[in-house]
Amino acid sequence: MPGYGTCLAFVLLLAVVPCPSSSSSSSSSAPEPAQHTLGTGSSLSVEDHWRPFLTSPDGTFSCGFQDAGENAFSFSVWYTDAAEKTAIWTANPGAPVNGRGSRISFRRDGDLALDDANGSTVWESKTSGGGGSLTISLLDTGNLLISDSDPSTGGRTLWQSFDWPTDTLVPSQPLTKDKKLVAGYFSLYYDNDNVLRLLYDSPNISSIYWPNNPINDPFQNGRTTYNSSRIGVLDDNGVFLSSDNLGVHASDFGPGVKRRLTMDQDGNVRIYSMNASTGGWAVTWAALGQPCSTHGLCGQNALCEYQPSLRCSCPPAYEMVDRQDWRKGCKPMFRPVTNCNQPPSPSPEQQFKFLRLPHSDFYGYDLQFNQSVTFEYCKKLCLKMCLCVGFSYKLEGQGVCYPKSILFNGFTSSAFSGTIYLKVPIDFDASAPLVTARSAAGLACDPNISVIVQRSEGTFSRTGNGTKWPYLFAFAGVLGVLDIIFIATSWWFLSSKQSIPSSLEAGYRMVTGQFRRFTYRELKDATGNFKEELGRGGSGVVYRGVLDKGKVVAVKKLTNVPWGDEEFWAEMTVIGRINHMNLVRIWGFCSQGKHKLLVYEYVENESLDRHLFDTDRTTLPWRERYRIALGTARGLAYLHHECLEWVIHCDVKPENILLTREFDAKIADFGLAKLSKRDDGAGDSMPLSHMRGTTGYMAPEWALNVPINVKVDVYSYGIVLLEMVMGCRVCDQTTAGGERLQTPQIAQALRQVVATGNVVPLVDGRLQGQFNPRQALEMVRISLSCMEDRSNRPTMDDVAKALTACDDEDEHPAYR
């Protein structure tokens, strides 16, 4: 069959056209001279993002367009010599502009403005009307400055970036009482008591967590409130001095080093120093020594543990709110008390019990502080308090008791001698498998989330006592029947009440769904009338959109969808429950008549084919290739074996493997083929009305008119895996006679590679030998097995396990 070719330049096929190399020369114009100062009327198009808008006179800093994701850019200032353009200031953090048609302009009226592709102004300096002699300059300090050069005005400054810091300070840039560094929910700022602090401030809860012991007064933490200047400055020697008596210095103290102080996304403040030879950054001071000292990383009701990397977990009787985001914490698996105005009946002792978590605590939110009390007294105190959700107790020569109103900032550490006791209903079975309650709630499974809980006698797992399984199955069956009755009743209600308002209808429909149903008008407005195209494929066109709260999303406008509104909604409520770290998350959908759209998370770093086959780009390093191969295998294994609905992708190819900023793989376009029900059996097949997929990646059985099963994805994955090794399209390669290679020829050549172990001639030459031979040989072996007859192909579960076993630097949990 045509379309199954490769460039195997060894043994059997000696005259195959080799893969293109990125070393081929390309013409480029000479760089333009650097500009330090510009007058009004100057501008820069995002298409010229390779050219800086301004450069400081000594060349230390540059400003211009900075890559902020797939087809997304921000206007920033950065250190010129840095290996990565780490921004020290950004005009539009969190609101990137399109990579085509956007522009930064120093307008004739003196306003510096950033315009998106649709003509909207994303950000502006608001300096219009300042006069006709305005200039914009980038100083040697990194300060972007708009000033009036008219001598009669004394050269006044109208605007400067130092007055609007984002998440970073550079030497000589002051942090003052009316400024703060912000990264997500975290901020560094001066409090009303004149002390520099770190604050976690989410929509639901706030907490100060630095100085290191917020319970102490400022003087116990080495600070002073007796100052009114409220100013902190990082100097050229790497010393940061604050008016509240804080003084710290970088470990490489001394002049001549380029540094920055940054509020990082993990809630820690660090000083970074640049390596002059490599341009890389190294941490030379950090405010917090342990990640768990930061508040909010694991969310409410969750525990943080460092062993030796950060790990979040839910305590017993609690489960994750969102399996993709630990910041949302955990929720109780029981009904908490909501009405404290009524007297308890029966007594609290008959209603509640306590679960013990040794070496654990939740910081703050104490209802009382009791000293020199017994454990029993502390326990009864919490029982009598309606708002008490647990209590902390420890012996420090005397008993210390802290009843808690909120479980926040939890941690587990062997160095901590105290114990937290969680208040739960007396009929709650702590030994029951936690997965039972999750299944009853209708959540999709996620094998990558492990929940370890502790009791006084040690650690126990989900499996619990085997003698309880019949009761658990019976309980789950009853819940399932009730769920079906509820869904059927809701469905009948919707279909029979034709006069129900559309707003209420959407609410009823989402009772059984876990993501949002959008209107066509909402998505039309969010995409600017579908103006900014990100890409297109056989199933539709993808557009960039921005939702009401500024969240950037990808909106896919589907074509040739045969389903009606009810059928489409039913399909999407199933697909919306599919959730895995290596799958693109679906946030919602729209189904209004002929309009069928999907709303996806926005993945920043484009698709694998752009990085693998584009010879104008920097060669994709081997470490990233292997990580992408492993992540893709894990995502497909989840679809095939481990989610509630057994899903065949039907179009696995590099274009459908999207990459995050850290080059983690996320599979797109899954679930658009028909779903096969779990009760049909994982090995059974499903009929499809027509061929699906892309030439070059389609398994041979597509042309044989036989029922299709998950092994078509395994075949396609094998082709993609081989392309990651070779760095070129398999289907584009021909023999010396100009004929495309066939699957048997490919398999024969790969067998010789596996037999001899000589994989070097097959590996992408652009890597210049920088690859892991053991991993490359394993990838070739797996690729060969994926091309076998479908009955002999491995499962994606087997593939993921094999790749994990060969991964020397696997940072993911052990694959199960």
Automatic annotation (TrEMBL):
Residues 1-23 form the signal peptide. The keyword Oxidoreductase does not apply. GO terms for biological process: recognition of pollen; response to other organism. SMART domains: B_lectin (SM00108), S_TKc (SM00220). The keyword DNA repair does not apply. Keywords: ATP-binding, Disulfide bond, EGF-like domain, Glycoprotein, Kinase, Membrane, Nucleotide-binding, Receptor, Serine/threonine-protein kinase, Signal, Transferase, Transmembrane, Transmembrane helix. Its EC number is 2.7.11.1. ATP binds at residue 557. Residues 528-815 form the Protein kinase domain. Residues 29-159 form the Bulb-type lectin domain. It is found in: Membrane. Residues 24-43 are annotated as: Disordered. One of its GO terms (cellular component) is membrane. It catalyses: L-threonyl-[protein] + ATP = O-phospho-L-threonyl-[protein] + ADP + H(+); L-seryl-[protein] + ATP = O-phospho-L-seryl-[protein] + ADP + H(+). It comes from the Eukaryota. It is a single-pass type I membrane protein. GO terms for molecular function: ATP binding; protein serine/threonine kinase activity. It is an enzyme of class 2 (transferase). Belongs to the protein kinase superfamily. Ser/Thr protein kinase family. This is Receptor-like serine/threonine-protein kinase.
